[in-house]
Each structure stands twice: as structure tokens, then as C-alpha cells.
Amino acid sequence: MSRPGAGPRPGWPPELRVVEDVAEEALRVFLAERPRVVLLSGGETPRRLYRLLARTEYPWAEVECFFGDERCVPAHSGLSNARMAREEFLDLVPARAHPIDGARCDAEGYEALLRRRFGDRLLFELALYGLGPDGHTASLFPGRPEVEVTDRWVVRVPEPGWPPRVPRVSLTLRALSAARVGLLLVAGPDKREALRALLAGEDVPAARLPPGRLVVVADREALPPTGPPPRAGPAPPRT
């Protein structure tokens, strides 16, 4: 089923790049855009990108990093998105990091932090997104009321629709979409159906992201059996 009210909107249809190495292509996009205000994603797919970024010469002291979501666990927990990002990337460069307080499940505190930093005009120069097998992005899950929130930038997610089933804090679609460029990373055969639904514009949370420009970087294992739709092309030739 198509997304309700589907029609022309910023960043849609997305630019699809089918590549052998998602992390390397994501690094190319990052270096081409040269962002200073970045929204980070949790999960396993961006882990190798973070390792590459940590080894990349870049003016990291000028960079601020925010988070799209967090699990409500202590900062030292193996389930913490911030811990993974710190260990793979943020502890190795002088960028300024603004993690969500997962131990307190503090959605209100993170919204206040964003409003102090951005005022009424939230804008990330580059946002990293993930795609769950069910079409979720950040911690916004199909059929959950948090997907429909439009008057907040950050919400609690008491009942996530995908493991690990611990409460979460997540930016809303409104906040996640406040990006000049959104970079959605997709890897593995378990993402095929979700990627198909996304590219078809079906009503899954990830298909409701309208950043200024949306680039989907997917490996061949994640490509639906029918391949990309005609509007989406492979990655441009490498130079």
C-alpha cells in the first residue's frame, strides 16, 4: 500500500546507489558533502563506516554529532548506540558529541538540548539513517503511534517493534528529516523486503523521510529480486 498522501516532496524519489561496499560509498558521500553538523545512526550497518571515519583526515574539531535514537540502557551497556559510536569513532577524533541519555530514557532532555542548539530551525547537514527488516528507521516502528508525532522533535518509544525489546528514545520523522542530505545505509538479504517497500513508496516509516536529498546506499544482497525500479540507478562511476 502506498504512503497516504503520497506526492512530490523533498528528497523523493531517493537516489539509489547499489555498491559492493556500503561503508566505503558512504564515506565518499560524507567527504563530498563535508558536513559539520551530523546526525548519527545506531545499529550494525554504520559500524564499519564509523571505523573508516575515525581513520580519515578531516577537520573533526569543527564537527558536532547528534544521535537519531538510543536504547534506554546505561551508557556502558553493549546495547547502547552511543557506546558503539564512541568506541568505533567518537573517542578517536576531536568531534563534539551530543548523546541521548539512555539511562534516564530522557526524551525531554534531548529535545531541550536540540532546541538550545538550533532554536526553532533544526537542521543537520548530513543525517545517517538505518533501515530495519520491517521498514523501521531510528526507533520509529510500523504501526506505532510515535511514527505519527508531528509536534515534537524527540519521543519516548516504550514498546519497540523489533529486538532488542527495550524502551527507546527516538527523534521523530519531523526531526530526522531536518537534513540537507540524508544517507540511508542498507546491507544484507534480510533488508530486501524493506528496501523494496521503501523504493515503492509504501507506508513504512523509512519511506516517510523527506530530507532535502535522500541517498540510499545498498549492497547487492539487499537489492530486491526484481532489482531497482527504473527511477533508481546504480552508483556513478568511481573516479
Describe the structure.
This protein is 22% helix and 21% strand. It has helices spanning 22-33, 47-54, 81-88, 107-118, 173-176, 192-199, and strands spanning 15-19, 37-40, 64-67, 69-71, 96-98, 124-130, 154-157, 168-171, 179-186, 213-219. Helix 6 links the parallel strand 9 and strand 10 (213-219). The protein is globular and about 45 Å long. The chain has a seven-stranded parallel sheet, covered by helices on one side. The chain is built from six helices and ten strands. Mean pLDDT is 92; it is low at 1-8 and 230-239. The N and C termini lie far apart (39 Å). The chain is an alpha/beta fold.
Name a few traits of the molecule.
239 residues, 6 helices
Structural category is: alpha/beta
Strand order of the largest sheet: 1-10-9-6-2-3-5
Bin the strand percentage. Answer: 15-25%
What's the mean pLDDT score?
92
Specify the biggest β-sheet.
Answer: 7 strands, parallel
C-alpha termini separation: 39 Å
DSSP summary, beta strand count = 10
Oligomer: single chain
Any low-confidence stretches, pLDDT <50, length ≥5? 1-8, 230-239
Please compute the radius of gyration using only Cα atoms: 17 Å
What is the ordering of alpha helices and beta strands?
A: EHEHEEHEHEEEHEHE
Helix content: 10-25%
